[in-house]
Specification:
five-stranded mixed β-sheet, two-stranded antiparallel ribbon, 284 residues, globular, 26% helix, alpha+beta
């Protein structure tokens, strides 16, 4: 009498075959996950770049409606009065202040109408920095990652004389038409979460003994973010946006509360700081 193989047994896998399949899947995952992670980060960098470009275009639209005057860029502190005349109306902190979460501080400020109320333009997708207190409160992010060049726009009392007292050796650009090379001067940037506070991005070029600017006493007061492979997204006065990659390890600081230990002295390797100062304004 002939015998027949059990169909159920023919369809099964041996233990060796299952282990081989699992090993192949693990190998594929090992190859693919880094590529997927890089692709995800690249997508975040492109999104951040688009955000800064949108803020730059909003700024240009603002100047069209205000006789070429750039938006107000005021110094604010956590305790200072708020005003919607400023380009944004909040101060980022590591506390539970509503400034960190209240979207009306973006949409109600002077630049809000020019971004069509799209609040995502103010936040870098790679910016997930939160304090322990904020995480415990259930927050997933703060609402703003970008700041405006301190030498661009009306800085209120700090620029009432026509010169910014924080940087007297450099020109304050009140109008977009005053910028001699708009392609070279940045307006917005992705700022480090430790220094972002009021959205007024300031660094000072200290004068040397001979009165020239560019001394060895320079320090980072406000620090660019470096979420995107050691790079920061900038938008410029001509409307274009680009990523700038940093070279000095001191410029690359962890995006966690108080990790940057600002201000950071720059005793040598000034090229990152010098690049920012050269694209911030022009000397008087």
């Amino acid at each position: 009498m002939p015998t027949f193989a059990n169909p159920a047994r023919r369809r099964g896998f041996t233990l060796i075959e299952l282990l081989v399949v699992i090993a192949i899947i693990a190998m594929l995952a090992a190859f693919l996950l880094p590529a997927l992670s890089k692709a995800r980060e690249r997508a975040a960098a492109i999104s951040c770049l688009n955000n800064t470009r949108q803020l730059g275009l909003a700024c240009q639209l603002y100047t069209d409606d205000h006789e070429s005057f750039l938006p107000y860029n005021l110094v604010m502190t956590d305790a200072s009065p708020r005003t919607n005349i400023n380009w944004v109306n909040n101060v980022m902190t590591w506390e539970l202040s509503s400034d960190n979460t209240n979207l009306a501080t973006l949409t109600g400020a002077s630049l809000g109408p020019y971004v069509g109320g799209v609040t995502s333009f103010f936040h870098c997708p790679s910016d997930r920095a939160l304090s322990v207190m904020q995480s415990a409160a259930g927050w997933d992010r703060r609402i703003r990652s970008y700041s405006m060049n301190a030498m661009v726009g009306n800085a209120g009392a700090f620029s009432a004389s026509g010169v910014n007292v924080n940087n007297p050796g450099y020109k304050q650009f009140f109008k977009i038409t005053q910028i001699p090379q708009p392609v070279e001067i940045f307006v917005f940037l992705d700022e480090h979460p430790d220094s972002i506070d009021d959205g007024y991005f300031l660094n000072k070029d200290a004068p040397a003994a001979n009165g020239a600017y560019g001394a060895a006493a320079d320090e980072w007061i406000d620090l660019p973010a470096s979420y995107h492979n050691r790079s920061t997204a900038f938008s410029f006065a001509d409307g274009h946006a680009s990523l700038h990659r940093w070279l000095n390890a001191k410029t690359i600081q962890p995006a966690t509360p108080h990790a940057a230990h600002l201000p950071i002295q720059i005793p040598d390797e000034h090229y990152d700081f010098d690049w920012v100062m050269a694209h911030m304004s022009t000397e008087n």
